[in-house]
Amino acid sequence: MIKKDNQIRLLVVARDYKPNSGGIAEYANQLVRQLAKNPEYKIRVLCQKSEHLKSAVVDKVEELRVLVPNSKTGKSYSYMKRLKDSFVFTWILLWNVYFWKADIIWYPSCGVDYLLPLLWVNKPYVLTYHGTCLLVYGNNRLGVHSRNKHAGEIVKNRCERASMIVTNSAFTAGLVEDFVNKKPRIFVSGCGVDMEILSKICDKDSAKTKLGLENHKILLSIARLFDYKGHDIVIQALPIVIERIPELKFVIGGTGPYRRDLERLVEDMGLESYVDFVGYIPDEEISSYYSASDAFILNSRLSKNDVEGFGIVLLEAMAYGTPVIGGRSGGIVDAIIDEQTGLLVDPEDPNDVARAIIRLLDHPDYANKLLRNAQTRIKRKLNWEMIGQRLNTELKRVASASIYYDLK
Q1: 111-139 pLDDT, tens per residue?
Q2: Are residues 335 and 329 in contact, defined by beta-carbon separation less than 8 angstroms?
Q3: Which is nearest to 242 in space by CA: 265, 214, 208, 271?
Q4: How many domains does the chain have?
Q5: 207 in the same domain as 155
Q6: Which domain holds residue 228?
């Protein structure tokens, strides 16, 4: 499988990739970047078309912008258009596999349309799952019903043929095991942060002044505004916290369809002066928000067919020096070790959420102890450099073993 020049030709099929935002795009971007540091790899990424970015070689990675963007695959995405795009993608993938002579195909995230062509591929391939993308096919253990049984059978078949499946958390690994009949080889990569964050930390008082939030205790949440993110429960917890900490300000960063529902809840509870919806936070401003905050919360819960696969923003908050609270659900229990690197709460219980917020904001010595433990763990394990090294080891095992489903 390894070429005479000793380079492994890694073909990356990345539905979510820069300039997209979100945890999955960050996961793909960072790990490709880490693998590219190794001269043993020659990497080509098939990623989404972009109005602002063209196909190019970036940091030793060849980026071919040939995939249909996610934003164009909604309800208006007709059957014939889907069929045409699937045909085009199949041709692109097979050309790169057999003419570019890829050794391994790696999907940092998986959509059923992009998995279909693997039926005609006799090369080792690696799939990656992040949580919600598997729940859509149902899970009896969690009481979740499949939204597409036919697509589920296709995905199951591709999973069972895979040389390896990578997951972002032990929770997601459990979803894979629940889903398949024939257990594949699973590598739990975890998620990480870019250690360059440490050079971007701002002085807390200066950051608060910059944001116009001086004299406030800031509780921050950065996430897409969906029901399962649990913002509503945090808002319901605020009156309890405000009794103890009247200078509290809950800052909500992110966009999504649930924003208007949350704004109505804030209005109904008379909390307008305690909650700020700041919308999408650009990269150049993110350090100010993290640095200014006294606590960070990601109160995700299992809701319908959605779950938090890990919660990279929790690690980012820790790296910026902000103690964290997470809903005890999904992969968040991998991101936070309760009472050691942060606090886990019942994401459906406003009283439990309120107690955790008060505990961090009212007891800075305890919060700093958790934070020191969290930052030590990040430096040792949960950074992209370390995760990239572990993924590199696993991919080289796949390449040298030539593990794939033999069509013959």
Answers
A1: 787 888 888 888 999 999 998 888 888 88
A2: no
A3: 271
A4: 2
A5: no
A6: 195-380
